[in-house]
Amino acid sequence: MEATRFVFGKEILEIAKTHDDFVVCNADTKACGIEAMGDLFPTRSYSIGIAEQNLINVAAGLAAEDFKVFACTFAVFVTMRCCEQVRNFICYPHLNVTVVGTHTGLQVGEDGATHAAVEDVAIMRAFPNMTIIQPADAVAAKAIAHAAHQFHGPLYVRLHRNPSPLIYDESYTFELGKATRVLNFGDDVALISSGIMLQKALDAAGALKEKGIKARVIDMSTLKPLDEDAVLEAARATNAIVTIEDHSLIGGLGSAVTQLLSEKHPCHVKCIGIPDVFGESGPSEVLYAKHRMDVPSIVAAAEQVVAKKR
Amino acid sequence: MADFEKLDVQELKDMARTIRQDIVKMVHAAGSGHPGGSLSATDIMTALYFNVLNLDPQQPKWKGRDRFVLSKGHCCPVLYSVLARRGFIDVSDLTTLRKYGSKLQGHPDMHKCPGVEMSAGSLGNGIGCAVGMAIAAKVRQEDHKVFVLLGDGECQEGSVWEAAMCGAHHQLGNLIAIVDVNRLQILDTTDKVMKIDPLADKWRSFGWKVLEIDGHDMAQVLDTLNYAKSIDGPVAILAATVKGKGVSFMEDVIKWHGAAPSEKELGLALSEIEGAAK
């Protein structure tokens, strides 16, 4: 088990060895290991200090000079402390900056509310020109490092603090804007997950199968633009959807999916995520259980939407 | 680079009058905009675009050009006018300021208007972008300079000082910040809204070389800009100016931060600026 943030950072450093077409800006956090870039390539890594507004502005200036830039720090800072700089100086001028936000969701556990980015996707989703991707495990994080390197334009990569279970094998490929159907037991219900909640979705699908409910599981690794075809296909097949995310119920995956479905294919939906509250200190699994984001809660939500169909 | 005969001090003064007339005409035609801070920066901007900056209007993205970032983006009328008079855009474009479909957005858009290096409009950020551009030039060992123009009220933004610290930390010898010290902001004088003094001491203490000038003495403006270009930076030029300079009823009057002159006021302004030649 490895944390997505370190796998992503390590892979970016690997890519740096053979590609000299990008630089890194850091804001004095041990976010994803990419901070070591300066040891390998001193002229390609810039320390900006504890100054997130300037982190983004400097990244914008470098990008205006045709550098590809990775700007990395904790998600709670990079999407909020310098929110306006991301909007006005990365998204509006459509500059080639990958904003890397780590320590997302309740997985930061003990650090508590100030460090738990549970609104970051909602904020980044609202900006025109922004693309958002989130790996579900270490294999996906590695693939997403390559995708981010090849991407041109404003990009937000959402990463996670703690090691999480390995789901994919080396045959996994990441395609921007395309969801992955990870499991397909049948047409009773579709569980649409993003990020490291995928393992819980898979466990829930297994538990549902034992109860005679056939679920399919979809990994929405691109949060924006949403893979509308994948959502609509799942909705048409199942008419029962559960979304699962380690993010506020306001503005994230659940909001994107329900907005789409309410317009194009109204059906029974339950959204699993953090209610309209801040995080708090505690083991992440305790927090997930508190907010009904654990496997039994996903199973119960699936049973509810399936029951409504009948 | 296309041949360009740099203007001398007298020619710059003449050009500055044209620019000032453009500004009041543009803002009048738009019905809104920011004449005060555009007029205070006119002499500096004229010296930059018609003498100091290495530019090629035929190739706005020419790699060897000096970079200029307007950090106080609301003062884009003066930027648009110098870009037009220098040949980046047509002079006829100027009447489209703030209109639907115009390349001259209410605050500058780097993709819509040739010659605009960075989109702007939110204060305190252009200098950070300029730091990024200066780092880029330094690591690529390119010898062009990066200029950025800020307002004095803008120096109330904390991000200005994040960037100032960063410019000195990364020893950006190619970075020159000019502060248009016109002493007024939207609600009142800078002294009353949020005191920024001692401004020179602040820049010095952040590790910058500081040059203090009269921002309307064209000979001094020109000499100082060229001197700043010749020395190792980062350099901050603090230019004492008068908001609304050149139009008596706008000079040092807060209202003209963001107001459009009426038809009658426009006529008065144009003839005053014209009369300044005599």
From TrEMBL, chain A:
Q: Which Pfam families match?
A: Transket_pyr (PF02779), Transketolase_C (PF02780)
Start and end of every Transketolase-like pyrimidine-binding domain?
2-166
Entries under InterPro entries matching the protein: PDH/Transketolase, THDP-binding, Transketo_C/PFOR_II, Transketolase-like_Pyr-bd, Transketolase_BS, Transketolase_C
Q: Per UniProt, which keywords does this protein have?
A: Thiamine pyrophosphate, Transferase
In its keyword annotation, does this UniProt entry include tRNA processing? no
Q: Which GO terms describe its molecular function?
A: transferase activity
Q: Name residues in a coiled coil.
A: none
Entries under Gene3D superfamilies matching the protein: 3.40.50.920, 3.40.50.970
Would the keyword NADP be found if you checked this record's keyword annotation? no
Q: Which cofactor does it need?
A: thiamine diphosphate
Q: Which domain of life is it from?
A: Bacteria
Q: To which protein family does this belong?
A: Belongs to the transketolase family.
- The protein in question is named Transketolase
- Tell me which species this is from: Propionivibrio dicarboxylicus
TrEMBL record, chain B:
- List GO molecular-function terms, semicolon-separated: metal ion binding; transferase activity
Q: Does the keyword Metal-binding apply?
A: yes
Which is a Pfam family this sequence falls into?
Transketolase_N
Highest taxon, organism lineage? Bacteria
Per its UniProt record, the required cofactor names are: thiamine diphosphate
Query: Which InterPro entries does the protein's record reference?
Result: THDP-binding, Transketolase_CS, Transketolase_N
Q: Where are the transmembrane segments?
A: none
User: Which keywords describe this protein according to UniProt?
Assistant: Metal-binding, Thiamine pyrophosphate, Transferase
Transketolase N-terminal domain: which residues? 13-266
Instruction: Give the family this protein belongs to, as stated in its UniProt record.
Output: Belongs to the transketolase family.
* Record protein name field: Transketolase
User: Lineage of this protein's species?
Assistant: Bacteria, Pseudomonadati, Pseudomonadota, Betaproteobacteria, Rhodocyclales
